[in-house]
Automatic annotation (TrEMBL):
This is TRAP transporter small permease protein. GO terms for molecular function: transmembrane transporter activity. It is found in: Cell inner membrane. It comes from the Bacteria. It comes from Paenirhodobacter populi. It holds the Pfam family DctQ. The lineage of its organism: Bacteria, Pseudomonadati, Pseudomonadota, Alphaproteobacteria, Rhodobacterales. Belongs to the TRAP transporter small permease family.
Amino acid sequence: MPPPGGIFLCAPRCRNRLARPPIAARTATCPMGRRTLMPTLQAISTRLARAEAALAGAMIAAVLAITGIGAITRYFGAPLLWADEAAIAAMIWSAFLGASALFASRGHMAIELLSERLGPGGLRGLSLAADLVVLAAALGLCALLWRWFDLPGLIRTGSAEALADESFNYIYLEPTQTLGIRKVWIWLVLPVFALGSAIHAAALVAGDLRALRRHA
C-alpha cells in the first residue's frame, strides 16, 4: 500500500509487498511467552482506525442530513440559520478523522516515481523513511497543539477569560456565528487527528522495523 500521507513514493503494484499482515498474524508472542509491544501497538492502531472511520462516516451522514433539512426548510421559507455552519463543522470532523484512519492502512494518495524502481529491500527502507517522517510530523503537530490549547495555563488561571487576559490566547473564547457554541469544540478534532496519526505512524514504524529485522 502507498506510504502514509501521500508525500513519499510507493507504487500501487508494491502494495501487496508492503501491506501489513492480518491482526491474527501480528499477535505472536516473544520467546519468553510475553506479547511484544509491536503487535499490541498495531492492534491499538487498527481498532482506533475502525473507530475513526465509523465516526467519520457518521459525520458524513450528519452533513447529508443537515444539508437536506436545511434545503427543505429554506424551500418552505423558514431556513435554519445554523445549518450551514453545522454542516461545515461536521465535514471538518469527518475529513480529519478519515485522514487519520487512512494512515493506518497507508491509504493516502502517493506518487510512484521512486518506489517502482526499487527492489524489496529498498521498498522496506522507503516505507520506514516515509513512516518516520509522518510520525515526526504528527508528534510535531501534537507539540504545537499542546502549546496552542495551553491546558496547563487554563488550569492555572482557572478560566478561559483569565487565560486570554494573561496570554492573549482566545482559543476558548472564540464563538461560532450561528451554532451558539465556542469554536474550540470544532477545533478539538485537531488533537484527535494529531494523536491518532502519531499512533498509526508509530505502529507502521514498528512493523517496518520488524520487516527489516526479518529480512536482514
